Amino acid sequence: MVPPGSSSVGGATTTASTSRHSATNNNNELLLAEPSLHHLQDHHINSRQSNDNWLPGSDPPIMMQVMNNQDDSDGDNVYIDPKHEKRLIQRLDKRLLGFAMLGNMVKALDNSNLGSAFISGMEEELHITGLQYNWMSVIFMAGYLVMQIPSNMLLSRLRPSIYLPSLELIWCVLTLAMACVQSVNGVYVIRVLLGLAEAGFYPGIVFLIGTWYSKRELGKRMALLTICGALGTGSSGVIQAVMLTTMDGKLGISGWRWMFVFDACITAVLAWFGRQYLPDYPHNTSWLSNKERDIAIRRMGDDTSNKLHDSGLLVVPATGPHSKHESTSASVRKLLRNKYLYLFVLGWASLQLSLGAAHVLGIMAKKLGYDAVTANLLTTPDMLITMTAGLCNGFISDRMRTRFWCIVCPALLAFFGLGMLSSFVQPFGLLYASYICTHVGLGSITSIMMTWASETISRDIGVRALAIATMNTSASIMWLWSPLVLWPVTDAPRYHRGFTTSACCVVFFLMIVSIIGYNIHFKDRRSPIKPKNSSNNLRRQSSEIKEPLMSQRSYEED
Question: Out of 109-123, 434-448, 531-545, which region has the weakest mean confidence (pLDDT)?
Fold first, then answer.
């Protein structure tokens, strides 16, 4: 039971302090009479070390105190127990991250199936000629582009545990239809509908992950998400090769059609998993306990101010069933005023345009004389290496607390590889090594770039959803025309125009990243908080935080 005059918070009991460390907060401001911010920073390290040994009934460590209350008579202290926080993160990893990783793998597998099927018999069976194969990709991107932003706008207002699995179910039916298609026109229709269904998944899942995880946790998890996409793309060639050697002709069905049947079955299982286990938002996820819900909401607030993070002050945003929900027009206006949006959109678009070079290896190999099975299998080592590099890069970016250098260094490697590919170096082994350098360099920075954007642009839920969707829409626009202009199948195997343009895009991308890095690391840090003993100065500094502190309710420890 909770002792009188105290409240149970995050699995620990905190007693209201009436000493000089207490404070009141009537206007959602952070008030500290004593000690000052300088005093808090002096105790920062000791407070971190003493968290686990903190006993109920005593004042919590100074760094963990938040003066947050609507009752003048009682300054409630907020404490997040690391054990309970770790338990919450583990549950999120099993449910949210598990669904995201599997979903991205299946999405990448489905997108890669078209290329695998093309070199495995679909070209001959459906009598695909000229640029018809490229038009299949363009039409898919047209549907993807149309639904991208509307889908994320819907997601920010609907329950993700229903919306995302519903998209997966539609996706499953359309993938199964691909196994039954009999003409090029039928492929066109199915591909545009697939684009509409798949458009909401990746930006939606990135948005949802950014809602639940803190900045220090995002990098590695976004890397895992991207790696599973690479695994799906790499698995496509292996699975198609297996289908060609074991299932081709079974029940009168071609091997490339069995691939789509296999993909549809996996998607159906994923849709069921998502409906059962995917979370919504911290304030309305049904399988969270009250304790976990409060911890999740406070964790969201922990990222709202880098300026106060090192002093240990937790700031809780106005998120919950009673919080004010901004209109779409207000979110759009706020987004358009954000100086980083345009830089990230340009950078992301150039990165995605250069990534076109990473999707033509199978067709290159076939046009150079390799059989269908070998051409499919050649894509697998490349994907496995890219997957490993992406995972390592994500962990390094979190460990070193840097996004900038974990983007610049791989991009330089990609530029080297694209230069070699543009020259079409021989023998094939050297060409293959250049292709791996290109894919490793570009593929290992996509997750870091998206994480950086999610951290930098806004913590506002509506603005962030629109920003992520806008970035992905810019990428879709690039893919709307680049398959026809840069990567027409008639240019295989050299693709000189495509590889040269990709190299130029990498140079432009590096310029954009440098501008973003300069603004973040220099301009935005010229006026750091200076420790002063005046409570008025501290009050003025804390007023920069946009989210008001949420009032804390009491409950008995489970």
Answer: 531-545
| CA-to-CA separations, 332 to 202, 416, 450, 456, in angstroms, rounded | 21, 39, 19, 17
Phi, psi of 14 (to 5 degrees): -120, 135
pLDDT band at 555 (very low <50, low <70, confident <90, very high): very low
Of 103, 100, 13, 9, the residue nearest 54 (C-alpha): 13
Contact 475, 346 (CB under 8 A): no
Work out the mean pLDDT of the chain and round it to a whole number: 74
Instruction: Give the CA radius of gyration of the chain.
Output: 26
**Number of CB atoms found within 10 A of residue 336's CB:** 12
What residues contact 291, with CB distance under 8 A and at least 6 apart?
A: 10, 11, 84, 555, 557, 558
Return the exposure string of 499-523: e unless at least 16 CB atoms fall within 10 Å of the residue's CB, then b: bbbbbebbebbbebbeebbeebeee
> What is the three-class DSSP state of 16?
coil
What residue segments make up the domains of the chain, in order of their start? 84-285+319-523
Instruction: Indicate the pLDDT class of residue 524, thresholds 50, 70 and 90.
Output: low
- Per the CB < 8 A criterion, the answer to whether 271 and 197 are in contact is no
- Indicate if the pLDDT at residue 455 is higher than 70: yes
Nearest to 439 by CA among 458, 457, 417, 420: 417
Residues shown for the chain: 558
pLDDT > 60? residue 541: no
User: Would you say domain 84-285+319-523 falls under CATH 1.20.1250.20?
Assistant: yes
Q: Phi then psi for 459, rounded to 5 degrees?
A: -100, -5
* Tokens coding 35: 């000690």
What is the token pair recorded at 400?
């070193």
Query: Predicted confidence band at 256 (pLDDT cuts at 50, 70, 90)?
Result: confident
Angstrom distance (rounded) from CA 46 to CA 463: 37
- DSSP character string of 307-363: HHHTTT-----S-STTS----HHHHHHHHHT-HHHHHHHHHHHHHHHHGGGGG-HHH
Which phi and psi (to 5°) does residue 443 adopt?
-70, -25
- For residue 46, what are its two tokens? 């000791």
Are the C-beta atoms of residues 394 and 220 closer than 8 Å to each other?
Answer: yes
Position 538 scores a pLDDT of 39
